[in-house]
């Protein structure tokens, strides 16, 4: 037992020390030791304290230890048993299944089952219910009773504080509370329980308390005093700062100001004073660094003003120099455009616009294809040349780069439904085409239309149809009652009544059962809605599910080539085939070929090993799969196939490439996958093949006892050496030790071994190189280069293949891979074939190769010379030397003409040859001399007569006469030269002439017409009309006067009537009384007959037909001609039966010298005047006399009778000659007596127009009327004003009603002189203007556009309320606009305007309605001293105290004008009025906004009181894009009037482009209809308004363009820019210049009074009709309310 126990002792000591550490260390581990162990432990520790113990003590003391060890061993055994038991339990638990455990509760550190009870505290009992512990106090025991205070429960013994100053204790249900004690000494903190010894502050603040009365102010109560201080803000280092919302301290506004310019935060810019400084704005500060200049490509760069770095002036390349910015075409490449930019040449490809589908190829030396021909299917076509389409029924030709096809014209056919025969293009009458189907002649077919059966037949292209009766059903219901019809039986099958079916095998037959009788008929197919339907098998009717075309069926969506026309590619779409010409791809070879049935030319195929391959195809060699071939231009070019790298290290060789990983190739042998094999060169390594990769591991050797084992040759494992002996080295030196390896100096590739005193050498083994073309290293092949066909190449080196031309090889890690050289596309149209690739160093043109710069004859045109230049071919006519002759000849076989012969009008002549003139062969001869032709006329023989005529070749001949340019035959008579009055005769070529005799004339007046020879008798000219001698006519100006022509003198006089019957009657249109029935003294006269009624030969009667009733007789005295110019002595009295005297001598003629003169004839009743070379004598009319016949007398030499006095019948009194009197019945008529004749004339009154309700009354004591209001009241603007009432007409005029008369007082203004930067302006309530800084205006118009104060035009489409213009600094006023979309989303118009002036709000509404603080007011409206609103024409004008002026047209146009004193302090949609349009998009925060929509939306304000309406924010919209191209085109056309002549004078002062853009925008937005007219007029009026402001007034309205109607009945007319202060009754006395100077309103288009009239009460009247106006001094009148207010 001693042995094991001795072994256990150190273990026990170890355990005891561990236990001690565990207990004393307090590391949380409790080792419960047996007490005995502790005792031993203690005794061991105390042992050194008893050095005097006896010697036998150790043995005595060792016994308890042995006993304890025995017990320990027994415990260890028990533990093992317990451990086994535990392991068995764990195994059992691991085999158990998990099931849900019954609910348990956790408490007092253990689990309690459902329903268990426990007490965590003496006064608390808990119970487990459904897995949750429910605990309650045990209130039954006295020591467990708790307390309740203020609704809160407390446990027994618990201490609590109901407030900060009280402490309470709960004991067996009773609560005891005590106050907290207060400390002695200084006062406690505010808010504690104890008394406060410091006084508080006003407002209930305690001492020491702090609070914030404002967000950025902090206040403290100290000793009864409130101390406040603002925020302590750090000092800012920036130019402009602002305080953000919710912050107390200002911050730097983002952005910088530097050298007078503003820059945004983060902006980078160059310094304006020093361009070599690059500056940036960061955090409000500007930092600048000097610029570094890049190196220049030119030798002498030039500094540029405003730039830091010098730049190159131009570019130089290849000896050529270009200036900066110059462009040129690259030499040798017309498709490349180069430009010189600051010394650098930048080139780009020229872009060719494809304007046609089949353009011709570019001309040599040019880049872009032309539309002057066509290139199709590899062939060029000239313009107009026919193009084969493959369709025999259409004719195609080339037209400007496109192919135009037209169907062949077909002759008209004599039938209505001609059919088509396959293979023919035109329809013929041999068949019929009806509803899309073809029928043969005499074929019968059936159709079904709207439920009716129709039978039709085709007869020679005509179709005739008739309706068919349906058979009567044989089954009828008997009267006795209902009875079912029997079913139908057909082919042994039964079908129910009414059923429809299709018999088996008969798809085109439909049967139905009607009243027991089966009825079958052919199915009628409706025409298919496609052109090429298909009959599916088993179906009756054609279907559009596929296409049948030329006998072939194609699926919908299928593309195919037309078999009959290979140049057409076709597409089947829903049963209709659509074909188009094939667009042939360009060929890559020089000589493409076309075969039969083939459309596009192709490159030739290749034949290799009796197999055919298509051009461009890549394929494997038929005999050698390891060669890859490609067919190019009929030749197969093959090369070894490029092998991809194998995915394994040691692949087996495949058919071509070593890439088979199913096995391994290693050391020259092949092994299957998974095979083990010895290493080929190292017998001590065993190898294994895995998936194409070989893994070799060393063999294991047994351990050896010797310290230095020896490895013998050809052995794998070392052995212990027997004995050691050295070996001599070749070349002397220290001998080699046993088993030492060494190299020979002369052959480093051999390795030697000293073994037992003898040396064995062998060549170093070389591992197989893992590459295909290794180079030879010092000893072994190396893959760090390549040995290829006898040459060495470095790894990564490219070199041309030594064996295959045009191949490039790459050496990479010992392997060489060769591939064809890649050719870049040639940059020229005619590249030459290089060694490998096409090159532009020469040209290949029409199959021939030429060097660059070589000239060669054009193969197509021998007289053309072509030049090859860098792959481009330029051809032109061969240059010929200039010749000194005019008609050179080009000999056959020559290209240039020579002067050795002549070519003249198609005729060839040898030198010196004379030949007839080709242009005039009979009369002219031509001679060829040194290449020039000279022609001359043949000579004529002389003519022997003075007047020969031109004969052949224009030679003179004497057979006829030639006179005055005309030929006359021998013996012909003809008129002489014009005006000669000669008659000529041609005799034997001689002309003889004699003067014509004139017949004698008996008349005194003779006239010779221009161009005539003899004079003729002239009648009389009267009223521009000639009357023949002796004729009579009625004077057109006086129907009862008659005129006659006698001896060239016209005599006119009124008819003197004679009565021939007892009761004559006179009609309205009769000059003289008539006698009914043409009967006189028993004789009946026919119409037109005249007779003398009595003995007086001067009386004559005529029987005349009447328009109504029988003919009647009218009698008058004959008229005698005036004997003008006849002396009295020469006048002969009339003879018997004659009426008129005659003159014994000829009368004087009216010659040109007497024109216009008057002459008194012998008869004093006539006056004669010389007119139109005719004396016109007119009988004077005598006035009616008032005296009786007996008192009348005719003074000598006078025509008319006279009276000495006038008889006034109404008053029965006589009036002396020359006396005047007033008509007693009408005081406005004055009468005067002139020689017995009474003349009366009314007094003239001016025209009078009275206002409504006024009456015209005669003036007292006068003849004329005046206007007067009814009763004693007055009328003002159509309203009645009581007498004594006063009112203000305008700020300058007040009126009052005084006894029915309006009396007005008008103020005059002193002259006003304003400075150059000032303009006159009105203050509300004052009559006279004052000077204010010159104003600027802003306008909103259209849908809506805003022209800002600084002239920027914005478009913004929001339909809410916005700030239009506002005084953002002083707050004097603000103008808001409310927009509406008028029913169209996305666009808007101005609906109303609100002007805020202090507490007053003025609303300008639709139709010109004005409200002040919501109440409508009448205009003019004055509220001193704030505002004055008036209506000028149709424009409402508001004048406000700060100098503000607002114009509103009552519809959508508003204009705001502010004086220059507001410069820089405005804001809103009208901009900031700082003189810069660029920064007008500032929002309310002062930041520039990116878009006009964002800017407009930022100025939105809440709408005013009233019902809310939907409002939409503005968006960036383009209404023209939405409404389409047609709307934009129409808008462009209608808005073009802005750029036309009516506005041309304005274009120089107001550019029309922004307004044109706005107009187009509006018309697109307004859409079609009447709204578009209003939108157009809005835009035009806005531009016209700006023109008027600039001093130009365009007259642009037309009869149909924006017409403004004016009340013409009240005298108004329209004026485009009428005076803004029109003339009225109240200012008519003010001089016009003074009136215009003090009228500070703008001129507006509207209705005005014409010149000479003034405006009063909405009428234009003469100034004389105005009410009286009394002028006052310079004091303005006291404004009074308008009448009725």
List the helices and strands and how they pair.
Elements: H1 2-25, H2 35-46, H3 57-94, E1 104-107, E2 110-113, E3 117-121, E4 124-129, E5 132-137, E6 147-149, E7 152-154, E8 159-160, E9 166-171, E10 174-179, E11 210-214, E12 217-222, E13 225-229, E14 241-242, E15 251-252, E16 256-258, E17 261-263, E18 268-270, E19 277-282, E20 285-290, E21 314-317, E22 320-323, E23 327-329, E24 336-341, E25 344-349, E26 359-360, E27 370-376, E28 379-382, E29 386-387, E30 394-399, E31 402-407, E32 418-419, E33 428-434, E34 437-440, E35 444-449, E36 452-459, E37 462-467, E38 488-490, E39 493-495, E40 500-501, E41 509-514, E42 517-522, E43 546-549, E44 552-555, E45 559-561, E46 568-573, E47 576-581, E48 606-608, E49 611-613, E50 618-620, E51 627-632, E52 635-640, E53 664-666, E54 669-671, E55 676-678, E56 685-690, E57 693-698, E58 741-743, E59 750-755, E60 758-763, E61 774-776, E62 781-788, E63 791-794, E64 798-800, E65 807-812, E66 815-820, E67 831-833, E68 838-845, E69 848-851, E70 855-857, E71 864-869, E72 872-877, E73 902-904, E74 907-909, E75 914-916, E76 924-929, E77 932-937, ...
Helix pairs in contact: 6-8, 8-9
Characterise this structure.
With 1685 residues, the chain is mainly β. It has ten helices and 137 strands. An eight-stranded antiparallel sheet has the order 119-118-117-130-129-128-127-126, covered by helices on one side. Strands 120, 121, 122, 123, 124, 125, 131 and 132 form an eight-stranded antiparallel sheet that branches. Strand 50 and strand 51 form a beta hairpin. It is extended. The chain starts with a helix and ends in a 14-residue tail after the last strand.
């Amino acid at each position: 037992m001693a042995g094991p126990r001795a072994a256990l002792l150190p273990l026990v000591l170890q355990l005891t020390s561990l236990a001690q550490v565990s207990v004393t260390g307090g590391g949380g581990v409790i080792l419960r030791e047996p007490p005995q162990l502790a005792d031993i432990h203690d005794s061991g520790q105390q042992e050194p304290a008893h050095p005097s113990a006896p010697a036998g003590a150790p043995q005595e003391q060792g016994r308890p230890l042995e006993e304890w060890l025995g017990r320990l061993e027994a415990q260890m055994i028990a533990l093992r048993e317990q451990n086994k038991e535990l392991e068995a339990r764990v195994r059992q638990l691991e085999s158990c299944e998990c099931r849900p455990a019954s609910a348990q509760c956790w408490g007092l550190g253990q689990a309690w089952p459902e329903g268990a009870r426990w007490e965590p505290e003496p006064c608390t009992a808990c119970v487990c219910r459904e897995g949750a512990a429910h605990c309650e106090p045990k209130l039954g025991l006295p020591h467990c009773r708790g307390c309740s205070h203020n609704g809160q429960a407390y446990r027994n013994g618990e201490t609590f504080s109901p407030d900060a100053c009280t402490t309470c204790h709960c004991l067996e249900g009773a609560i005891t509370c005590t106050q907290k004690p207060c400390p002695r000494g200084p006062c406690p903190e505010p808010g504690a329980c104890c008394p406060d010894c410091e006084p508080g502050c006003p407002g209930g603040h305690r001492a020491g308390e702090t609070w914030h009365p404002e967000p950025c102010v902090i206040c403290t109560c100290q000793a009864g005093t409130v101390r406040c201080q603002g925020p302590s803000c750090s000092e800012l280092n920036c130019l402009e700062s602002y305080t953000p919302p919710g912050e107390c301290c200002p911050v730097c506004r983002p952005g910088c100001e530097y050298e007078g310019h503003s820059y945004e935060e983060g902006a980078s810019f160059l310094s304006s004073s020093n361009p070599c400084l690059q500056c940036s704005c960061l955090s409000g500060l500007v930092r600048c660094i000097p610029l570094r200049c890049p190196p220049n490509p030119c030798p002498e760069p030039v500094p540029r003003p405003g730039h830091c770095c010098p730049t190159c002036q131009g570019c130089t390349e290849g000896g050529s120099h270009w200036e900066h910015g110059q462009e040129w075409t690259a030499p040798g490449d017309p498709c490349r455009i180069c430009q010189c930019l600051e010394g650098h040449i930048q080139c780009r490809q020229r872009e060719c616009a494809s304007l046609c589908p089949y353009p011709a190829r570019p001309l040599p030396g040019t880049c872009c294809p032309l539309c002057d021909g066509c290139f199709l299917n590899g062939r060029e076509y000239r313009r107009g040349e026919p193009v084969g389409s493959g369709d025999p029924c259409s004719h195609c030709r080339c037209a400007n780069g496109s192919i135009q096809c037209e169907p062949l014209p077909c002759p008209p056919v004599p039938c209505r439904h001609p059919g088509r025969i396959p293979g023919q293009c035109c329809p013929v009458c041999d068949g019929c085409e009806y509803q899309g189907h073809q029928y043969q002649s005499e074929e019968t077919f059936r159709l079904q239309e709207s439920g009716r059966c129709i039978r039709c037949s085709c007869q020679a292209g005509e179709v005739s149809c008739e309706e068919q009766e349906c058979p009567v059903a044989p089954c009828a219901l008997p009267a006795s009652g209902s009875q079912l019809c029997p079913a139908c039986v057909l082919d042994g099958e039964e079908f129910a009544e009414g059923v429809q079916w299709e018999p088996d095998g008969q798809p085109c037959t439909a049967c139905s059962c009607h009243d027991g009788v089966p009825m079958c008929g052919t199915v009628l197919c409706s025409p298919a809605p496609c052109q090429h339907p298909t009959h599916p098998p088993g179906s009756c009717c054609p279907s559009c599910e596929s296409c049948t075309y030329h006998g072939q069926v194609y699926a919908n969506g299928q593309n195919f080539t037309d078999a009959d026309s290979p140049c057409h590619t076709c597409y089947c779409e829903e049963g209709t085939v659509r074909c188009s010409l094939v667009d042939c791809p360009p060929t890559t070879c020089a000589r493409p070929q076309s075969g039969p049935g083939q459309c596009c030319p192709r490159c030739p195929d290749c034949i290799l090993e009796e197999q055919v391959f298509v051009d461009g195809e890549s394929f494997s060699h038929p005999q050698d799969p390891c060669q890859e071939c490609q067919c190019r231009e009929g030749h197969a070019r093959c090369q070894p196939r490029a092998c991809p790298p194998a995915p394994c290290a040691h692949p087996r060789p495949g058919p071509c490439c070593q890439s088979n990983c199913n096995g391994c190739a290693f050391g020259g042998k092949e092994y299957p996958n998974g095979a083990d094999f010895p290493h080929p060169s190292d017998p001590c390594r065993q190898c294994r093949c895995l998936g194409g990769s070989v893994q070799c591991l060393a063999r294991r050797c047994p351990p050896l006892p010797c310290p230095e084992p020896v490895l013998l040759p050809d052995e794998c494992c070392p052995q212990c050496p027997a004995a050691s002996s050295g070996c001599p080295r070749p070349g002397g030196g220290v001998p080699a030790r046993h088993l030492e390896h060494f190299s020979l100096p002369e052959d480093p590739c051999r390795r030697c071994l000293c073994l037992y005193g003898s040396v064995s050498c062998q060549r170093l083994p070389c591992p197989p190189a893992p590459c295909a073309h290794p180079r030879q290293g010092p000893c072994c092949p190396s893959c760090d280069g390549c040995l290829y066909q006898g040459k060495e190449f470095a790894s990564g080196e490219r070199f041309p293949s030594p064996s295959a031309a045009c191949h490039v090889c790459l050496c990479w890690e010992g392997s060489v891979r060769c591939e064809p050289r890649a050719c870049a596309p040639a940059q020229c149209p005619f590249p030459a074939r290089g060694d490998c690739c096409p090159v532009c160093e020469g040209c290949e043109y029409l199959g021939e190769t030429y060097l660059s710069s070589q000239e060669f004859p054009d193969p197509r045109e021998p007289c053309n010379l072509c030049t090859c230049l860098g792959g481009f071919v330029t051809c032109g006519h061969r240059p010929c030397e200039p010749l000194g002759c005019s008609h050179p000849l080009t000999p056959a076989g020559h290209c240039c003409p020579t002067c050795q012969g002549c070519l003249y009008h198609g005729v060839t002549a040898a030198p010196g040859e004379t030949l007839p003139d080709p242009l005039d062969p009979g009369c002219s001869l031509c001679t060829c001399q040194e290449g020039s032709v000279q022609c001359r006329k043949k000579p004529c023989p002389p003519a022997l007569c003075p007047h020969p005529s031109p004969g052949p070749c224009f030679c003179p001949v004497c057979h006829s006469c030639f006179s005055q340019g005309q030929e006359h035959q021998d013996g012909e008579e003809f008129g002489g030269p014009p005006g000669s009055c000669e008659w000529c005769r041609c005799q034997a070529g001689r002309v003889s002439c004699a003067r014509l005799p004139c017949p004698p004339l008996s008349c005194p007046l003779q006239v010779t017409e221009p161009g005539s020879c003899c004079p003729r008798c002239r009648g009389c000219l009267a009223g521009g009309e000639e009357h023949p001698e002796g004729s009579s006519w009625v004077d057109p100006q006086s129907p009862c006067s008659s005129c006659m022509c006698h001896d060239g003198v016209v005599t006119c006089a009124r008819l003197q009537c004679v009565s021939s019957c007892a009761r004559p009657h006179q009609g309205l249109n009769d000059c003289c009384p008539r006698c009914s029935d043409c009967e006189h003294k028993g004789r009946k006269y026919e119409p037109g007959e005249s007779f003398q009624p009595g003995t007086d030969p001067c009386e004559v009667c005529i029987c005349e037909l009447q328009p109504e009733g029988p003919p009647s007789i009218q009698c008058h005295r004959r008229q005698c001609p005036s004997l003008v110019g006849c002396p009295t002595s020469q006048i002969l009295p009339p003879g018997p039966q004659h009426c008129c005297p005659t003159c014994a001598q000829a009368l004087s003629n009216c010659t040109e010298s007497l024109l216009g003169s008057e002459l008194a004839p012998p008869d004093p009743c006539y006056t004669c005047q010389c007119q139109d070379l005719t004396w016109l004598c007119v009988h004077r009319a005598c006035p009616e006399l008032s005296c009786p016949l007996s008192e009348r007398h005719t003074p000598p030499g006078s025509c008319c009778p006279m009276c000495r006095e006038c008889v006034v019948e109404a008053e029965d009194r006589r009036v002396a000659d020359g006396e005047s009197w007033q008509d007693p019945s009408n005081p406005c008529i004055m009468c005067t007596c002139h020689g017995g004749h009474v003349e009366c004339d009314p007094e003239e009154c001016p025209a009078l127009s009275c206002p409504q309700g006024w009456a015209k009354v005669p003036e007292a004591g006068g003849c004329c009327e005046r206007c007067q209001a009814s009763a004693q009241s007055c009328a003002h603007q159509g309203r009645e004003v009581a007498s004594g009432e006063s009112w203000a007409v305008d700020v300058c005029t007040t009126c009052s009603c005084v006894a029915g008369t309006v009396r007005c007082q008008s103020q005059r203004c002193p002259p006003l002189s304003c400075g150059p930067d000032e303009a006159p302006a009105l203050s509300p309530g004052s009559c006279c203007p004052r000077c204010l800084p010159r104003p600027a205006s802003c306008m909103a118009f259209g849908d809506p556009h805003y022209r800002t104060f600084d002239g920027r035009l914005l478009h913004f489409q929001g339909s809410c309320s916005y700030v239009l213009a506002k005084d953002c600094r002083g707050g004097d006023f603000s103008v808001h606009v409310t927009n509406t979309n008028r029913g169209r989303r996305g666009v808007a118009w101005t609906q109303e305007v609100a002007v805020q002036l202090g507490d007053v709000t003025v609303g300008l509404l639709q139709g010109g309605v004005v409200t002040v603080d919501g109440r409508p007011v009448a205009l003019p409206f004055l509220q001193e001293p704030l505002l004055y609103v008036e209506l000028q024409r149709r424009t409402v004008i508001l004048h406000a105290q700060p100098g503000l002026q607002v114009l509103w047209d009552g519809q959508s146009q508003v204009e705001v004008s502010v004086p220059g004193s507001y410069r820089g302090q405005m804001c809103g949609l009208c901009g900031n009025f700082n003189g810069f349009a660029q920064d007008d998009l500032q929002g309310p925060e002062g930041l520039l906004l990116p878009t006009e929509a964002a800017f407009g939306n930022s100025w939105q304000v809440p709408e005013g009181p009233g019902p809310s309406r939907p409002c939409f924010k503005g968006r960036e919209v383009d209404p023209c894009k939405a409404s389409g191209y047609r709307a934009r085109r129409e808008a462009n056309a209608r808005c073009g009037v802005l750029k036309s002549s009516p506005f041309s004078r304005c274009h120089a002062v107001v550019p029309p482009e922004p307004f044109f853009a706005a107009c187009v925008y509006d018309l697109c937005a307004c859409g079609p209809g009447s709204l578009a007219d209003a939108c157009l007029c809005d835009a035009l009026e806005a531009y016209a308004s700006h023109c008027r402001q600039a001093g130009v007034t365009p007259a642009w309205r037309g009869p149909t363009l924006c017409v403004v109607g004016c009340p013409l009945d009240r005298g108004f007319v329209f004026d485009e820019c009428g005076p803004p202060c029109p003339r009225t009754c109240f200012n008519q006395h003010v001089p016009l210049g003074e009136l215009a100077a003090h009228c500070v309103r703008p001129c507006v288009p509207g209705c005005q009074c014409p010149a000479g009239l003034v405006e009063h009460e909405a009428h234009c009247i003469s100034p004389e009709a105005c009410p009286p106006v009394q002028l006052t001094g310079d004091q303005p009148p006291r404004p009074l309310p308008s009448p009725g207010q």
